Amino acid sequence: MQEKEKSMNFEKTGKIKNSRIVRVLLARKSVVVGLIILAVMIVAAIFAPIAAPFNPYKQDLVNMLQGMSLKHIFGTDSMGRDVLSRIIYGGRVSFSVGLVSVMIAGSVGMILGLIAGMAGGIIDAVIMRIMDAMMSIPMIIMALFLGSIFGKGLGNICFAIGISMIPSYARVTRGQVLTVREMDYVTAGTLCGASKVKNTISHIFPNCVSSNIVLMTMNLGNAILNEAALSFLGMGINPPTASWGSMVNDGYKFMASNPVIAIAPGVFIMVVVLCFNMVGDALRDALDPKLRGTLGKRKKKMMMMKNS
Question: I need a labelling partner for 128 at 20 to 30 A (CA). Which of 16, 167, 223, 249 fits?
Fold first, then answer.
């Protein structure tokens, strides 16, 4: 009976916690709008063959550099390809680069942060000094350097951007480890005979995940922005693969005659990065115990002030 009551209380606590996170996350209308926009873009990218009105790689030199019309909503590029179709297919590349590079950076960075925080001493000093050296170089410069070494291509770009983002995850995880390892439940686990590895996996690592999830959400937008910058500089995806950055690079040459070719993919980049940053900021408020619920308190205070 006691075990059943404990399991029921645990499930109830988990449901309350999840409902509170969802409530705080969806408390802002801007975040809801951002989630809807991201969902529409991701679904369109996944089902690009159905969503795209034209073949994004089919050249039509007769209809090149066409303006905006009902047939071609954003016009056509210098090869006569439909810009909207290429933007939809380019979303596949951008979201893939963002997801894969963030997973690479998050997994490697969290492992390094755990090792540095738990080992301490020389190991901690060596890992953190390497991370500091990497952080002293701007992310886009680091990605350019690694991209020039690995070469073009989707996999190489994901790897280059992922490596450039590792230091942030390592530092965040190390800071969390140094805080959590001094908690009473970690000490209790050690006194009960739990090894250092078991304590790390069972107690310390789970408490470091939430802050890294927030960082991953925000870095998704940064990864997409870096991919666009690399493609704009000619270090990104190999043509003729559609990419938002390469589309801006190809379209800026025609800014005087047909600016939509460059502006349209640029607007999509800006909107996606903004939406990911808004969602990441709201997710931080929802997962951080110090910030959780402050949004509702502010609303109550505002209502009380209005009523008085």
Answer: 223
> What would the two tokens of residue 283 be?
């997710």
Number of neighbouring beta carbons within 10 Å of residue 32: 15
Distance CA 14, CA 134 (A): 39
pLDDT digits (tens, 9 = 90+) for 150-209: 777 788 888 888 888 899 899 988 888 888 777 766 667 666 766 667 777 777 777 778
Both structure tokens of 153: 């291509």
CA atoms within 13 A on the CB side of 45: 20
Query: What CATH number labels 27-307?
Result: 1.10.3720.10
The answer to whether the beta carbons of residues 208 and 176 sit under 8 Å apart is yes
Residues 145, 134: Cα–Cα separation, whole Å: 12
Its pTM stands at: 0.76
* Neighbouring C-alpha atoms within 13 Å toward the C-beta of 17: 9
Give the closest residue to 105 by CA, choosing from 60, 156, 170, 181: 170
